[in-house]
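Exam prep: given the inputs below (a chain plus adenosine-3',5'-cyclic-monophosphate), describe the expected output before reading on.
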Amino acid sequence: MALLQRTFSIIKPDATKRNLTGSIIKKFEDGGLRIVASKRVRLSREKAEGFYAVHSERPFFNELVEFMISEPVVLQVLEGENAVSINREIMGATNPDDAAEGTIRKEFALDIGENSVHGSDSLENANIEIKYFFKEDEIVG
Ligand code: CMP
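Solution:
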C-alpha cells in the first residue's frame, strides 16, 4: 500500500564540491519525491559524530567524520509515497560498484566512503534523523 512518508537525505561533501547538488535533486524530483525542507550547512565535528554515533566502533568512523566535515553538505527532507524505500532506490547501493544503472551513486559516487548521498534506512530512523537537523517549522510540505 502506498503511504505518504518523509525521509532524510544528505548530499555529501564529494557531491557539493563537484557542483552536483542540482543534478542530485533532479534525480529525487524525477523519482517522485518532493523537497519539503533544505539547508546547506557546514557540519560541526560534534554534529557529524552524533549523527553517525551508531558507527563509532567501525574502523572507518574517523575517516567518515573527517569527510563529512570537509566541505558543505545539503540536508533535506524528502516527501512522497513510500519515500524511505523510493529514496533508497534512487540512491542505489552504498558501494557504487554495486549500484544499479541510473542511480545517484552509480552516476556520481566516487567510492564507498565518498558516495554522494546519505538516506535514512527505515521510517523510524528517518524520524530520528529529521528531528536531529530540522525544527518542525523548517519543514514546509
Ligand atoms: P551512509 O548511508 O551515510 O551511512 C554510513 C556511511 O559510512 C555510508 O553511507 C558510507 O559512506 C560510509 N561507509 C560505509 N562503509 C565504509 C567503508 N568501508 N569505508 C568508508 N566509509 C564507509
